Amino acid sequence: MKLFGFFGYSIVFLKALAEAWIDVVKRSFDGKIDPEVIEINTDINSLMGQVLLASSITLTPGTLTIDLDSENKILKVASISPRTKDEIVPFEPYIKKIFD
C-alpha cells in the first residue's frame, strides 16, 4: 500500500507541478493575480506526512505554506489566485496512504 501511495503521489505531484507552472507563467503575462491566504484542513495524522504535504504545496508554483498547526491538522497556504483545497492538494490522499 505504501509503494502504491508513493507511486501515485509522484505522478499526481508531477502533474500538479506542470499545471501550476503553466498557470503561473500565464498569470505573469496577463496580470491576473489575486492573492489570498486560506486554511486547509488535512486528514493526515503523521507529522512527517503533514510536513511532506506542506513541502509539496510550497514546491508547487503559485502556492506557499506559511504555517502548519500539526495538532489541529491545519495548514495556512498563500496562493496567487483563489483556489479550492482539491486544486491545491490533489496529492493529499497519496501522502495519507504512505504515512498513515
Automatic annotation (TrEMBL):
<protein>
    <recommendedName>
        <fullName>Cation antiporter</fullName>
    </recommendedName>
</protein>
<dbReference type="GO" id="GO:0008324">
    <property type="term" value="F:monoatomic cation transmembrane transporter activity"/>
</dbReference>
<dbReference type="GO" id="GO:0005886">
    <property type="term" value="C:plasma membrane"/>
</dbReference>
<keyword id="KW-1003">Cell membrane</keyword>
<keyword id="KW-0812">Transmembrane</keyword>
<dbReference type="InterPro" id="IPR002758">
    <property type="entry name" value="Cation_antiport_E"/>
</dbReference>
<keyword id="KW-1133">Transmembrane helix</keyword>
<dbReference type="Pfam" id="PF01899">
    <property type="entry name" value="MNHE"/>
</dbReference>
<keyword id="KW-0472">Membrane</keyword>
